[in-house]
Iron-sulfur cluster co-chaperone protein HscB
Amino acid sequence: MLSLNSLRILCSSRAALHPNWLMTNRVSVFKAVTCSTHWTSTSFPNKDTWHCDVNSRAPVKDRGLTYSTKQANSPRSYCTGQIKQNCWNCKQSLDKAQAFFCVSCNAVQPPEEGASYFKIMDCDCTFALDTKKLQKRYLQLQRSLHPDNFSQKSMKEQEYSESQSSLVNKAYKTLHKPLSRGLYMLELEGMSIEEGTDSGADAEFLMELMEINEALDEAQTPEETNKIAQDTKGKLADLTERTDAALRKGDFQTAKALLAQMKYHANIEEKVKEKLSQFM
């Protein structure tokens, strides 16, 4: 297999002889960059990581983001509205939009079907949410819903507390970081991450990623590695700001493209952490 440096020289020489070569062969370049990639993010709903394995996955040209509309699960209704429910234990009406406990008998309730993570965590349905408020809400809910609090309760309440606690954990992990939060917001709009489709990343961006990965591989000191870390942090901050602006305007296609770039840089950020740990 060619090294990144050899591949870079090959790409540069062919591009010089044939100006259109890089664009027409961007899928091959993309494969070289991403087949060593370990995606670190939050997936929905089951996994927290993406892995690339050339022996078990579809061709790289078939990976990326696709758009689909799901009318049956209207995402905007997840953030607003109240559904009247009754307590399973005492049958009294539950007045709160997201009632974890019955106000009459104090029995823990089952998770509300279809409730968004924003609703569960009592947050505004926005990309630029207050993470301090989110963390405070998380700690509050976990203190009250932790299964240890229901060891002497009925099996039904123990089951409900475990379900609610697990759901709160998942909601917090998803909303806490900008990347996973943005991907979740796209999912609420019917846009999803699909493996096996073209990501749409252009050749110039892929070449930039190759150079960063190459520099990281060749870094010999913590100082060199930290320089890459700071550059990556700056790129992620810029992408986060631009994604927020796009989502505020309702420009989900632009937000999708920006979040795709964030995934690449988030992966580099994780590789930087691994590299720094080697110097300790």
